[in-house]
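LAB NOTEBOOK - FOLDING QUEUE
OPERATOR: T.R.
BATCH SIZE: 2
PURPOSE: Compare the predicted structure-token outputs for two unrelated chains run back to back under identical settings.
PRIORITY: normal
REVIEWER: second-year student, initials M.K.

ITEM 1
FIELD SEQUENCE / FIELD STRUCTURE:
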Amino acid sequence: MQIDNLRPLRDVIATHDLRAKKSLGQNFLLDLNLTAKIARQAGDLSACDVLEVGPGPGGLTRGLLAEGARKVLAVEKDERCLPALAEIAEAYPGQLEVVNGDALKVDPLAHLNAPIRIVANLPYNVGTELLTRWLSVPWPPFWESLTLMFQKEVAERIVARPGSKAYGRLAILSQWRCEARIAMTLPPEAFQPAPKVHSAVVHLEALGAPKFEADAGKLSALTAKAFGQRRKMLRASLKGITTDLEDKLEAVGIRPTSRAEEIDLERFCALSRLI
């Protein structure tokens, strides 16, 4: 079943010779019903502008527009994809703006109006860096929510809980100021070419204020140091970060012999305030 009157994605890819490039982290979603389902994970888009990064031939772009997005800004680095995206823009006049550029350098606020949601099948090679940047903007952020596709392993790191192997700095930064959940998982065969791993869509809803008081820069630096040597006890991995380290650890209820993966968000925030 089609979601619009445009050509099937396989035809679009064949016409424009859009073979996915590994160097760009590309894996194209071909099932338009699936891309529409992903778009729905972001909620009602009818009153929102949407930022999409790495649209490729436009499968998710079409899903977002079919689901009623007010406007979509599609940032695409690969010039080969521009003719395919132009076909979509023609079918949805005034609703799709395509920027040929690097998402790490494009200012979305120059193109979009609030409220803004970010929905993307992120290129594998820049996905985590983009997420970290979006989580590091002044709070509350310019976006209401993030609905992002990652390798399943990365998605599990975002929603991980203390005590698990996946728990780390990414979980702390994501869960400090957002509610994060895995919305759906996708098998390799949903993509062209099929990756070697499963993928997952993560939905992060921005909170009005952080769950616990902390300075963003200090919390980021603390967790980077703590998880940078995660096999070590905190009295060793955090050595040199502050004076009287063991006393401060104990003051916030952390045993100096604990490891970073054992410490929950609240205690990391308390420790960052103390040091």
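ITEM 2
FIELD SEQUENCE / FIELD STRUCTURE:
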Amino acid sequence: MALEGELGEFPLTDIIQLLDLSKKTGGVEIRGQRSGQLFHGWLYFRDGKIIGAELPGVAPLEAVYTFFTFSSGPFRFHDDRILSQPTIAVSNEVIIMEGIMRQDAWVNIHQHVSSLSLVPRLVPNPSSGHTEINLEAEEWRILTMVDGRNTIGQIAQRSSLGEFRTCEIIAQLLQSGLIENRALSPGETLAPEFERIAASLLGTGAPGVLQDAYKQASVFDPSRATGDQMLAVVDFFEMRVTPIVGAVRASQAAKELRARTHEVMG
């Protein structure tokens, strides 16, 4: 079955419903974009039913809901990509309903949390129209991780609350005036994205290869790197991974990295 296209033109809901109706088995490869960030994941089907999902650093069911928040990006169905052991038991109908809710909620969250690479910090003297600020346990957990160094993405990983819930809380804390976002250098913005794209390409071997690329580009502290230095890292990274994953996949990953770097550089 030839099913491929752009999420901006063919929403995930339509993809799920089409595969459900046709009772297809296989995997949908998704290279989604959201808030200027790139993601690479898989959504697995058996007889038209969702049975699993893969997205680096994200639990299977949460990965499915994350796919709904992508604003654009290419997708392609592969009937030879089979998941032997199901990891999701929720029905397609429930997933679609929750996914649409996440999609709508993310539009509001994005107004305050435009990127996972943002670094929030505490406001020294927060002002509030209320005499008292009451925070729930999950909100306190997130607030204790806000130190002006951790990105929102890092906070989401460490909080165990998931990316969506973490971003939701961050947005609430920003609106309340308790925290604010700190301006980032190109290196601070790009380094987490380089790590994610490298991990999707190489798995557990990604950190070593990426560090080697930084070293060859004479970048000893990625958080202080300029846009031009990060472009040099991409060149060395592409050369390093080509013998490992092949020229096509290496070139595709490098293209994503360069595109995001130029976007950050303006």
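REVIEWER COMMENT (ITEM 2): Residues 92-110 form the longest helix (19 residues).
FOLLOW-UP: none requested
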